[in-house]
Amino acid sequence: MDFTRRRWIGTSLAAGASLPFVPSSLAGGSLRIATFHYDVTPPVGHPLCGGWITPAKSVADPLEAIGFVILGSGEPIVVCAVDWTGLLNEAHIQWRAALAEAAGTTPDRVAVQCVHQHDAPFVCLDSEALVAEQNAGLSLIDLGFFQECLARGKAAVKEALTQARPLTHVAAAEAAVERIAGNRRVEIGPDGRIGRMRGSSCKVPELIAMPEGLIDPKLKTVALYSGEEKVASCHYYACHPMSHYGRGEVSSDFAGLARKRMQEVEPGCAHLYFNGCGGNIGAGKYNDGSPEARVELTDRLHAAMAEASGKLAPKPLRAVEWRTHDLLPEVNPVFTEERELAQVRNPENLPANRIRPAMRVSWIRRVAAKTPIVLSALHLDEVSMLHLPAESFVEYQLRAQAVAPDRFVATAAYGDGGAWYVPVKEAYPQGGYEVSVANCAPSVDDALGVGIRELLIG
Ligand SMILES: [Zn+2]
Asked: Is 129 part of a structural domain of the chain?
C-alpha cells in the first residue's frame, strides 16, 4: 500500500463518516457503490509497449488501475480503467475474471478499459508463450508481475466492498478540449491513399499546418454520488495519450497526470480516465514531443476536466442497467497464421517484427476458437457508459452518440485489445498505418455498429 492509497482511503473514510445516510429513492434504496484503486507500475527492467521500445529504466509517475463496483442492480457490476498500453485476448479475460471473482459476479459484468500510454505494459499472454518458445530473449510481460497485478486487483476490490456506500445520484457534463486532438490520417494523396501519418508528436510543418480533421472535441464527465458526496468521477476523451515515450521512463502521461491533478484536489472521490475511440486520433498537431509539451497537454486536458466537473448537476438515480453484446469479428484476410508464424520464428527480424506477428497469431487462434469480445454498456437513467474494444476509430463514438441522441453517451474504447486497430470500413481502401495493423476484416464495422445499437437502444 503506497502513500497515495493510504491517504485516499483515510480521507474517504473520514468524509463518509461525516455524511448522513441518504437512501436511493426510486431504485429502492438498495444501490451501493464502492471504489477501488491499486498500483500496476511495472518494475525496472520490465518490457514496455509489448517489448519493442526501451524497457523500464525509471518511474516518472506510477501507473494505476482505478474502478468502481455497483451493488444492488442484479449481480455486481465492475468498471475499471488501467494505465496500460493494452490488455489483449486472454490477458483481458483474466483481468476481468479476477475482478469478477473478488466482487462476487461474472466476468461479463466487468468492463476493463486501458488508457493506452506507451511507456507501460502491453500484454498478450498467448504471445508471451509464443515468443518465449523462440529462446531469443523476447518478452512482453513478466508473468509473475501480471499475476501479482491480478492479486492486487482482487485484494483492492474485496477491501473496497467493506466500504460500499449508498449510490443515490448521477450527473453528466461536457467541455470542449482546446488544442490536443487531431486526426492522424489527414494527408491523403490524389489516389485516395493515406500519406504520412501525423502521430502523437510531430515536427513536420506541413502536417502540423493541416486541419484537425475529424475528432470528437468534447471531454465528457460522468459522476456518481452518495448523497451529496461525489464518489466516482469518470472522464472520457478520444486521443492517443502520449506526449513522448520510448526512453524507458514509465509514466501515466498527460491523460494520467491530468487525472491525478483532479484526484489530488478531491481525495475522497475516485477519478477515472477513459480513452475514447482514439485509434485514429493523436496530439501531433499540438505536440512537439518536448517535456514542456507534456505539461501543456496536461494543463489543457485538466482544464476541460475541471470545466466539465464544474457543470455537474446531480440528479436522483432511478435505474441502473447493464447490457452486453458478444462481438465475433472476422480476421483481416491479409493475415494468415502461417505467414505470421514465419515472422515470429525469423531470427533476422527485429523484436517488434516478431512480437507483433505473435499478437496476430494469438488473435487468429482466438477468433478460430470463437472467443467473443464482450462489449458492454452501463445505463444510469439517461446516461450511458459504453465500453468498446481496442483502438476503435473516432467515427464509432460519434456514431454511438448519433444512434442515441436523447442519451448522454460517454464512450471508452481500449477494452479487449486483441483486435488492434478497428478502422471504419471506408478507411480500409485508404491504407495507412492503422489499416496495416488492423486485425479484423472490414466487416467489423457493421458488426460493431449492430453491437452499439443493441447496447444503446435495444
Ligand atoms: Zn495506438
From this structure: yes
Name the E strands within 13-83: 32-39, 58-59, 64-71, 77-82
CA of 420 to the centre of ligand 1 (A): 8
Cα separation, 4 vs 39, in Å, equals 10
What's the CA-to-centroid distance between 391 and ligand 1, angstroms? 6
Alpha carbons 111 and 127: distance in angstroms, whole number: 22
The dihedrals phi and psi of 416, each to the nearest 5 degrees, come to -55, 120
Residue range 36-63, pLDDT digits in tens? 999 999 999 999 999 989 999 999 999 9
**Cβ neighbours of residue 41 under 8 Å, at least 6 residues apart?**
59, 62, 63, 250
Structural domain includes residue 130:
yes
How far does residue 108's CA lie from ligand 1's centre (Å)?
A: 25
- CB 119 within 8 Å of CB 250: yes
Per cent of the chain over pLDDT 70 is: 94
Assessment of whether the complete model's pTM goes beyond 0.90: yes
The DSSP line for 104-173 is TS-GGGEEEEE---SSS-EEEHHHHHHHHTTTSS--S--HHHHHHHHHHHHHHHHHHHTT-EE--EEEEE
Q: How far is the CA of 118 from the centre of ligand 1 (A)?
A: 8
Q: Which pLDDT band holds residue 1 (cuts at 50, 70, 90)?
A: very low
Is 368 within the bounds of a domain? no
309 within 8 A of 233, measured Cβ to Cβ: yes
Residues sharing a CB contact under 8 Å with residue 32, sequence separation 6 or more, in sequence order: 70, 71, 72, 164, 165, 166, 167
Q: How far apart are CA 269 and CA 16, in angstroms?
A: 11
Measured in angstroms, how far is the CA atom of residue 38 from the centroid of ligand 1?
Answer: 24
Q: What is the mean pLDDT of the chain?
A: 94
| Domain that includes residue 308, residue range | 3-323
What are 88's strand-pairing partners? 124
**Spacing, Cα 148 to ligand 1 middle (Å):** 26
pLDDT of residue 28: 52
Instruction: Please give the tally of structural domains in the chain.
Output: 1
CA within 13 Å, CB half, 240: 27
Helices (H), 246-290: 253-265
Centre of ligand 1 from the C-alpha of residue 153, in Å: 25
Average pLDDT over residues 294-305: 98
Give 62-87 pLDDT, tens digit per residue: 999 999 999 999 999 999 999 999 99
pLDDT higher than threshold 70 for residue 3 = no
